[in-house]
Amino acid sequence: MTRAWVFARRDLKRMAADRRALVVNVALPLALTAVMGLSFGGGVFGKKGISAIPVAIVAEDVPESMRTRLLEGLEKSGFFAPVWADSLAADTLVRNGKVAAALVLPDDPLTAFFRADSLVVEVWKDPSSDIKAGIVEEIVGRGVLRVQAGEAAFRALWPDDYMTIGADSLGLDGLLEGDVTDIWTRLRDPGQTAARERAFDFLVRQFDHQVALQRALQGAAAGLAVADKVPTGQEEQRETSLFDYFLPSFAVFFLMFAVAAGARDLHRERARRTLQRQLLGPGPAWPIVVGKWIASVAQGLVMLSVLLGVGALLFRVNLGPDPWTLPIVIVLTCTAAAGFFLALALLVSREKVLDNLCTAVILVSGMIGGNFLPVDNLPPWAAGAGRYVFNYWANLSFSRVIGGNEGLSGIATPLLVLAGASLVLLVVILVLFNARVKRGGWA
Amino acid sequence: MIEVRDLVKKYGSHKAVDGVTFSVARGELFGLLGPNGAGKTTTIGVLSTLLHADGGQVRIGGHDVAAGAKEVRRLIGVVPQEIALYTDLTARDNLMFWGRLHGLGGAALGKRVEELLVMADLVDAARRKVETYSGGMQRRLNLVAGLIHEPEVLFLDEPTVGIDAQARSRILELIAQLGRQGLTVIYTTHYLEEAEQLCDRIGVIDRGRLVALGDKESLISQIGDADLIRLSLPADRHEAFRAAGAGWPGCTGIGERRGKLEVRTPDGGRLLPVIQEWLRANDLPLEQLEIERPNLETLYLTLTGRGLREDAP
Ligand SMILES: Nc1ncnc2c1ncn2[C@@H]1O[C@H](COP(=O)(O)OP(=O)(O)OP(=O)(O)O)[C@@H](O)[C@H]1O
Ligand SMILES: [Mg+2]
């Protein structure tokens, strides 16, 4: 093994001196990830992936304290960068494309709330504008659905209250009109005792029900579409970002090229006669090819670690639930890749043939192995064929750990496949290389 | 030290080496001279254990190259015809690697590497990548890399190919120095001059066969001390010259090479006036006449009927 290290060390030294390879292997995948990630949403300063979408909020009748809370809620959701506007300004902002959409809360939402009228949130967007407006609509739509679900539940649970909810039927006449101060003044009027009691009764029941509903719906605050998006008690759950997919799939894709180049070096060394010169050394020949394998693995380890590390810093790519799962995936991916391409190099007699073969193999296995499409979205035929290429199992592991935040137990199968393939390939390499040495086939 | 008997190496049905026999004594500088494709590299390949012979026997230091490859490798150093170095590494890194390959390490390795850098006159360039070197520098490094483990036998496969005259003479000097230090050397070349200048004994190889073997003097005596007289004539007079020459005493043959007529004779001094007389009688100029004492080139021509290499110096 010390001898294998002599060879590996030499290759690592050569790799370190090769600036172009450094750029291709590290800078290029990062750049591609950045380009892809940014163009499909997300940003260097993005929050959990998708960058905050600028929206205008029109809520002219909402009291100041509620505005502040609404603003905080929207910002905290990470989806929105809200600005306040009156309806005129909001209209202009949308038409100028300064915001993706405007959310318009109804006039006098408090009254609507007390009357249990349904709260209609309008979304203004430029129909020709980009997908972001669509995202806003979708999110708000879901919030509204949630509220509607709450209403349906309310009706089912407390039919009496729902029936009598109309403020008029309670004889609250005009008691709940106007803003908070008006309501407060009226409720404090000594001549209104009966109405006040009814109103108090009504309010308390409403609040009872709302609180019960909120609990049932995990804190859905009625009428606030966005509050819906930050379910309390579920803060642990991660938002998956596009970088979580792009980074590992680019990393594995470029890893294949880097490792293929390392394997091709075996033929280069033969052409340059450095391989023959090594065969003249004392001792057995196998450390030569094991050294190449080690160097390939080490290069892959550095490459993937740097890529994922930088990805975590720049794009907040998730590094898995614990500190050991991802490193294990990285190691097994590299050993399988190194074994695969060295075996390929040993099966082929000439560098030119290997070159073309590698390119074809990388493109095809990239396609069926999930480097161009997420493994879970692969068409069935591709996923079926993908089982026979190592990168499928690597991509599967990465997507489970990075995207799904799963630990070792969640990726036992792909890891076993990668480990088994690595071992078998290593044996294949040793056998092929030694057979060729015995034949004198390297001279 | 080296014994080669009836060596045969085939590539498919083509015999690249066909029954070669020679031996090299300890401390001897042996030249293997032959044109392109003669089988020099193939012979070195078998001697250095990389290629397996299809017939015959090779023993180095008493060990059979097939059965005792391990022991043989310990004895030999090989300098391949190609620049078998990592051109993306520095000279020092290269030598360090080749040293470690041979099990050297620590201070001993460092010391040996510095020695070789001095020997190759590459101390100043040692920190530069080999790809930035001139052809001569690369050749010198290629050579000393074969010496890292202080072998007793050195195989040099055309170590001067493709470099200019000045760089070549530096390498020849280096090899002569190694010879004086008692190293056993097999030196292949297609440059006649080099073999003449450097080697104690020479084997001439052509199409896989050893066509002559011996020290310089004995080789030359093999062609009967022939002198060679060269002259240029208009093409239409060649026939007449050949006809006349057939009757001259001491003329053993008339050939033609590169447009010149070549007359072979054991004694050029006697035949020369006869030729001059004929030229004068035929109104032809005398200036083109030249006489050449026997050397390996004439030997080679005699043996193979071909020149060594068109661009030979
Ligand atoms: N790997 C090979 N496969 C087939 N034929 C080969 C191979 N190597 C050499 N030959 C043939 O064997 C013959 C001898 O080649 P070799 O390389 O030994 O010649 P050489 O004397 O070293 O020539 P050069 O001066 O060009 O180096 C040539 O005809 C060559 O074409
Ligand atoms: Mg050769």
Please explain how this structure is put together.
The radius of gyration of chain A is 32 Å and the shape is elongated. Chain A is built from 17 helices and four strands. Residues 42-50, 163-168 and 218-238 of chain A have low confidence and may be disordered. Chain A has a four-stranded mixed β-sheet with strand order 2-1-3-4, with helices on both faces. The two termini of chain A are 24 Å apart. By secondary structure, chain A is mostly helical. By secondary structure, chain B is α/β, with parallel strands linked by helices. Chain B has two domains: 2-221, Rossmann fold (3-Layer(aba) Sandwich), CATH 3.40.50.300; 227-293, Alpha-Beta Plaits. Chain B is 36% helix and 26% strand. Chain B has a six-stranded mixed β-sheet with strand order 6-7-8-3-9-10, with helices on both faces. A four-stranded antiparallel β-sheet of chain B has the order 2-1-4-5, with helices on one face. In chain B, strands 12-13-11-14 form a four-stranded antiparallel β-sheet. Chain B is elongated and about 80 Å long. At the A-B interface, helix 1 and helix 11 of A face helix 2 and helix 3 of B. Magnesium ion (MG) binds at residues 40-41, 81, 157-158 of chain B.
Give the SSE map.
The complex is a heterodimer of chains A (443) and B (313).
Chain A: H1 2-17, H2 19-39, E1 53-58, H3 64-77, E2 80-84, H4 87-95, E3 101-104, H5 109-115, E4 122-124, H6 131-157, H7 159-163, H8 180-188, H9 193-216, H10 242-272, H11 274-279, H12 286-315, H13 325-347, H14 351-369, H15 380-386, H16 390-403, H17 412-439
Parallel strand pairs in A: 1-2, 1-3
Antiparallel strand pairs in A: 3-4
Chain B: E1 2-11, E2 14-24, E3 29-33, H1 40-47, E4 55-60, E5 63-64, H2 69-75, E6 76-79, H3 91-101, H4 106-119, H5 135-145, E7 153-157, H6 165-180, E8 184-189, H7 192-198, E9 201-206, E10 209-215, H8 216-222, E11 227-231, H9 238-245, E12 253-257, E13 260-265, H10 268-281, E14 290-292, H11 296-304
Parallel strand pairs in B: 3-8, 3-9, 6-7, 7-8
Antiparallel strand pairs in B: 1-2, 1-4, 4-5, 9-10, 11-13, 11-14, 12-13
Helix pairs in contact in B: 3-4
The structure holds adenosine-5'-triphosphate and magnesium ion (MG).
Adenosine-5'-triphosphate binds next to helix 1 of chain B.
